[in-house]
Amino acid sequence: MNYEFFIAKRIIKAKQYKSSVSATIIKIAIAAIAIGIVMMMVAIATGMGLQKTIQEKVAAFNGHIQISNFDNNDSEVSLTPLDSNQEFYPDFTQVSGIKHIQAVAIKAGIIRTEKTFEGVLAKGVGTDYNWEAFTDFLKEGRFPNVSDKRENREVLISAYLARRLELKLGDTFKSLFLKENTNEIPNERTFEIVGIYDSGFQKFDANVMLVDIRHIRRMNKWKAGEIGNFEVFLDSFDEIQLKDEEIYHVIPPNLDTQSVISKFPFIFEWISLFDVNIFLIIGIIIIVGGINMITALLVLILDRTPMIGILKSLGSSNWSIRKIFLYNAAYLIGIGLLWGNLIGIAFIWIQRSFGLLKFPNPEQYHTAIIPTHIEVWHILALNIGTLVLCVLMLLIPSYIITKITPVKAIKFQ
After folding, report:
1. Closest C-alpha to 129, from 144, 150, 142
2. In the chain, at which end, N or C, are there fewer CB atoms within 10 A of the end residue's CB?
3. Per-residue pLDDT averaged across 264-282, rounded?
4. How many CB atoms lie within 10 A of CB 182?
């Protein structure tokens, strides 16, 4: 143990240290570090939680990557059928990191009731559809049974559409779907609501209802096995750009890929701004915390001026004495980080478990409850970064020790 650390340790344990004039200022500095680390952890957790929630919701409706015909169809509606008999379906083994692939088809229509009507996108799904992505969205009822030998009338509709159309679980309604020849009489289908979902993402809730894909095939006069497009789900959203390129190079040349990032650029550009806000908050809080620690360090030096004089008279170098106070300051920062971590992690856990805090305008953020998500390495990086930056900020003010002369310091006592 070097003597600088030994002296710093003795100062920390001394009773005078805890009851000195500087004790209150030191406590304020510790509280500032603790509050700062809590705010930084909450900023990271809520920012990343909101990003992750929106990513998951967009992917639930579209998959991470879509495989479709190479054409100029920019609409959501499936126009040209695609043969589902592909080498990569139903098991996509050519590319690693793929969790699931499913076949879907979409047709635009109108739901008509006695009082009102609404435009919808009927998304046809089959037995391969991943209902797990919709489990958290399901509010009432169950998912449609699309595994029967014959097509059925069961449909999953959003709470938004059900509210606007004044429909409830168990109700039936009629839908109209235009044919390719607009002069012909539209297709009419009667559906029964067996489930109601609410994703909180109004862009999708206002349009999408899920039906048996065989309805879409029959109305479009497609052959058995023909679909609109494939939806691919990945193990990691962070690899979406890389996997998009890999998938594109292994599928047939008549097929194209599109990631949800390129399909909904405005959504992902918006949530990418959260990173800027997070870094801005962290930067401001670290600066404020550093200033508080500088104040505490100067008070410590002032309070221990006689000791500095004695140490200098005994032959200690300026850098050795500075190290004593830097060790002391690092200890104070560590105390603040400890309390900040305990409070911050507890707050994030409570919010994640019980969802006490909610958005006043959930339609703007596409979720009602403020989500939280933080990784262990984020917490470690935040603590190490805060400790290192604060200590580095203290190097300059600690230079004042070099200006203290032993004679004046001892007289000061």
Report:
1. 144
2. N
3. 89
4. 7
Chain centroid to Cα 91, Å, comes to 29
Q: Where do the structural domains in the chain lie, given as residue ranges?
A: 3-57+268-412, 71-252
Q: What is the pTM of this model?
A: 0.84
Q: How far apart are CA 233 and CA 231, in angstroms?
A: 7
| Count of positions (residues) in the chain | 413
- Residues near 137 by beta carbon (within 8 Å), at least 6 away in sequence: 60, 197, 198, 199
3-state secondary structure the chain: CCHHHHHHHHHHHCHHHHHCCCHHHHHHHHHHHHHHHHHHHHHHHHHHHHHHHHHHHHHHHHCCEEEEECCCCCCCCCCCCEECCCCCCCCCCCCCCEEEEEEEEEEEEEEECCCCEEEEEEEEECCCCCHHHHCCCEEEECCCCCCCCCCCCEEEEEHHHHHHHCCCCCCEEEEEECCCCCCCCCEEEEEEEEEEECCCCHHHHCCEEEEEHHHHHHHHCCCCCEECEEEEEECCHHHHHHHHHHHHHHCCCCEEEEEHHHHCHHHHHHHHHHHHHHHHHHHHHHHHHHHHHHHHHHHHHHHCHHHHHHHHHCCCCHHHHHHHHHHHHHHHHHHHHHHHHHHHHHHHHHHHHHCCCECCCHHHHCCCECCCCCCHHHHHHHHHHHHHHHHHHHHCHHHHHHHCCHHHHHHHC
Q: Give the whole-number percent of the chain exceeding pLDDT 90.
A: 44
| Joined tokens for residue 291 | 């200033």
Tokens 């401001």, located at residue = 284
- Would you state the pLDDT for residue 363? 78
For the segment 375-405, what is each residue's pLDDT rounded down to a tens digit? Answer: 999 999 999 999 998 888 888 888 887 777 7
Q: In this predicted model, what pLDDT tens digit does every residue of 80-127 receive, in sequence order? A: 888 889 888 888 888 999 999 999 999 999 998 888 889 999 999 999
Cβ atoms of residues 178 and 114 within 8 Å? no
Sort 276 into a burial class: Cβ within 10 Å, 0-12 / 13-18 / 19+. Answer: exposed
Q: Retrieve residue 95's tokens.
A: 């590319």
Average pLDDT, the chain: 87
Please tell me the distance from the alpha carbon of residue 241 to that of residue 238, in angstroms, as a whole number: 8
pLDDT tens column, 295-322 = 888 888 877 778 878 888 888 888 888 8
Per-residue pLDDT band for 1 (boundaries 50, 70, 90) equals low
